[in-house]
Write a structure and sequence with these properties.
11 strands; nine-stranded mixed beta sheet; two-stranded parallel sheet; single chain; 152 residues; mainly beta
Length: 152
């Protein structure tokens, strides 16, 4: 049986998102239809073992980012995936699942953890996340954030 198609909304080429699992609001993101998967800038990423169980330990963002909180996150459910960048460089990245809030709606999302320190946007929203949820209008920006901050 086919899943019913979800309603689609128009999203611009950049916006601000909330990541409730990381207690981050209004984080800049780039909507990237050229990227298959979504990615988030993380630092101090490593596997640690506690009581015989492997966890992925990381910090979202880094100390240079104004929204950096120094909070360390531990996740038990993670995987690895080979990702090819737009420049053709291939690397192995860790993959996690979390939640993202866009247009006031919470969605599940899968992120690869990457070093985006030199990039303008700490988050990329890729095709897998956008599919059946959003139509991208590259002439627009901050549609979700504008809706969130609109005064009644």
């Amino acid at each position: 049986m086919k899943k019913p198609k979800q309603a689609t909304r128009i999203i611009g080429r950049v916006d601000k998102i909330d990541l409730p699992g990381f207690e981050i609001e209004d984080l800049d993101c780039k909507v990237d239809t050229g990227a298959d998967t979504s990615s988030i800038h993380c630092s101090k990423v490593k596997i640690v073992e506690q009581d015989g169980v492997e966890f992925l330990k990381f910090r979202v963002l880094d100390k240079k980012h104004p929204q950096f909180s120094k909070k360390t996150h531990l996740v038990h459910e993670f995987s690895e995936k080979r990702v090819k960048s737009s420049s053709g460089h291939s690397e192995l990245r860790y993959v996690i699942k979390t939640k993202v809030i866009v247009f006031g709606t919470e969605f599940p999302i899968t992120f690869t953890l990457s070093d985006r320190e030199k990039m303008k946007y700490p988050v990329l929203l890729g095709r897998r996340f956008l599919k059946n949820k959003f139509i991208v209008d590259v002439s627009k920006t901050d549609l979700s954030h504008s809706e969130k901050t609109k005064k009644p």
